[in-house]
Amino acid sequence: MTFISNLINGISLGSVYAIIALGYTMVYGIAKMLNFAHGDVIMVGAYISFCVTTYLGFSPFVSVVISMIVCTILGIVIERLAYKPLRKASSLAVLITAIGVSYFLQNAALLIWGSAPKTFTSIVPFGSIALFNGQLIITAESIVTVLACILIMIALTLFTRKSKMGKGMRAVSEDKAAAELMGINVNVSISVTFAIGSALAAIAGVLLCSAYPVLIPTTGSMPGIKAFTAAVFGGIGSIPGAMLGGVLLGIIEIFSKSYISTNLSDAIVFAVLIIVLLIKPTGLLGKKITEKV
Amino acid sequence: MKKVSKIASIIMAVAMVLACFTSCGESTTSNAIKIGAIGPLTGSAAIYGQAVENGALIAIEEVNAKGGLQFELKCEDDENDAEKAVNAYNKLKDWGMQISLGTVTTQPCIAVSTEVNADRIFALTPSASSTDVLGGQPDADGNVTIPRKDNVFQMCFTDPNQGVASAQYIKEQALGEKIAVIYNNSDAYSTGIYQKFQAEADKLGLNIVCVNTFSDDSANDFTAQLNEIKQAGADLVFLPIYYTPASLILSQADKMQYEPKFFGVDGMDGILTVENFDTSLAEGVMLLTPFTADAQDEMTKSFVAKYQEKYGETPNQFAADAYDCIIALYDACVNQNIEVSMSASEICKKLIAEFTNPNFKIDGLTGTGMTWSATGEVSKSPKGMVIQNGVYVGM
């Protein structure tokens, strides 16, 4: 029973990683940049939701919507101000800028909301479910997280495969110059990518803080790094890859904590990543890219 | 358009730099002894640093009102980070600090105490509780790896003291048959308490069924640890950790419908002041702490009233420790006829003599008749507290 309980916890933690990883992977796939500020957009999303429910007294559902809107705008603004001017610059410059934006968001959150931790009220209105005479307890948050993760992945896959905008985004990801020649607006495609990624970050932030309800300005940074790992693990740029990588990472983390050692869990997670990358350098579901010379 | 975004980028960069400068206010009095404090005014342990600043300011107001020797406090933020603490220390030295009010948390204090020792500035830390802060204590193998820093003293209990006292308290009060521990293995404070707790528990024959760890980087998911503890059938969980992860553990245990007794140490103090925290989760949580805001003596009552009036919240033991630090420094300075014009090293010499003098006794908020030994440790006794209806009550 402990095994099942650990498995559920692992999938639930992994689903949060997966939703965050989707944001990383989309931005990387289309804009070819690592948006290290993604983890901090999660934190902003969680704070917005916290403020809307706690200070303004709105329902949790409204708070999620408002937080998605704010994060979407934030994502677009960040892209316009910090990344767009560097579109032609080296990828290293963009990477450093992203780290700068990440610190900016953390420090801005420190100024606005202060450093003292805040307890996030779960947005899930029902309690845990007890099965087998209370031997197996499933929290409502894990169910909602897993469902949200699956829904988001299906919606994103449909969007990129079927919609005009999604097809355009895929074309930009294949070849920017050719896509532009075909009449696709590259800038709009990239902005939409950031908008979607940031809206996902808001959802991830709310779900993360519902399951692990302590909110501080650095809340998003470690889950952000783990999710980035998950995205690489699953094959960066691939949507199902991010999902698979996230869930596997969550399960490995919880299992190594329970069955091997709590001391070594992070070491084990990253060791698995190294092994996977040695065997399959593009990640589990990553596409092999042949460089043309 | 390009120009506009360039300007916007520059503005963003400037804002980023500005966001780094967060510092606290200072009480400026001319012709006063300059006391420098370093602590986390921001970051995840900020409640401690802010409490220390507030508590010290109340004490300074009181001693300055006496009209004799005057004190002046400046405090710098270290975000509970050793490197930033040393930078903050250098800043305070440039300001002309004559006495150091240590640093608030353990990890930064270990770094800063080495600096004050080399620079001969007397330091009394309100709350950094590791023996590595003081130095001169043998480790598990009996070797002294850090020599005694003779000018560093503590107002709080040392970590070993807390670990030992917790184990003894649990044994005496028969609080648990099967005990589990969750501690932070990336933190010197938490690890230090755990090691001594384990050693003392073995001596006393306490049954520790499960020991689990986490690190600062993995401090959001405790379901695996709690599952294991639940499986081991523990009825008491000892948490020698700070209140932020502790509040997560309490809420996750609640979601798992697992209700053991929880026993914390002084780092647990502050859990009730976490914004939006459901205090019913902390109902029945026990902790050892030297100070309780609901004590009925005159000194505590007056301190709590002033603190609530000024800062709008109930002081925790960090505020009380800081208050006692200032009272102790004031008495020591008066006894040794210390003057404002003296250099830091002169003051240091005199204060060491005073603090190691067995006749030097302080009655403060956190203990009566407190004395210090040459090892830098304070002697006072901890009290067991339990959280009932959202307030601390003596056990």
Outline the fold blueprint.
The complex is a heterodimer of chains A (293) and B (395).
Chain A: H1 2-31, H2 38-54, H3 60-83, H4 91-113, E1 118-119, E2 129-131, E3 136-138, H5 140-162, H6 164-174, H7 176-181, H8 186-211, E4 214-215, H9 221-234, H10 239-260, H11 265-279
Antiparallel strand pairs in A: 1-4, 2-3
Helix pairs in contact in A: 1-5, 1-8, 1-9, 1-10, 2-3, 2-4, 2-8, 2-9, 3-8, 5-6, 5-8, 6-8, 9-10, 9-11, 10-11
Chain B: H1 2-20, E1 26-27, E2 33-39, H2 46-65, E3 71-77, H3 82-95, E4 99-103, H4 106-119, E5 122-125, H5 131-134, E6 152-154, H6 159-172, E7 179-184, H7 188-204, E8 208-214, H8 223-231, E9 236-239, H9 243-255, E10 261-264, E11 286-289, H10 298-311, H11 317-335, H12 344-355, E12 371-372, E13 378-379, E14 383-388, E15 391-394
Give a description of the structure:
- The complex is a heterodimer of chains A (293) and B (395).
- Helix content of chain A is 72%, strand content 3%.
- Chain A contains eleven helices and four strands.
- Chain A has helices spanning 2-31, 38-54, 60-83, 91-113, 140-162, 164-174, 176-181, 186-211, 221-234, 239-260, 265-279, and strands spanning 118-119, 129-131, 136-138, 214-215.
- In chain A, strands 1-4 form a two-stranded antiparallel sheet. A two-stranded antiparallel sheet of chain A has the order 2-3.
- Chain A starts with a helix and ends in a 14-residue tail after the last helix.
- The relative contact order of chain A is 0.20.
- Chain B is of the alpha/beta class and 395 residues long.
- Chain B has two domains: 32-157 and 299-379, 3-Layer(aba) Sandwich (Rossmann fold); 160-289, Rossmann fold, CATH 3.40.50.2300.
- In chain B, the strands form three sheets. In chain B, strands 8-7-9-10-11-14-15 form a seven-stranded mixed beta sheet, sandwiched between helices.
- In chain B, α2 (46-65) packs parallel to α11, α6 (159-172) packs parallel to α7 and α11 crosses α12.
- Classes of the chains: A mainly alpha (293), B alpha/beta (395).
- At the A-B interface, α1, α3, α4, β1 and α10 of A face α1, β8, α8 and α9 of B.
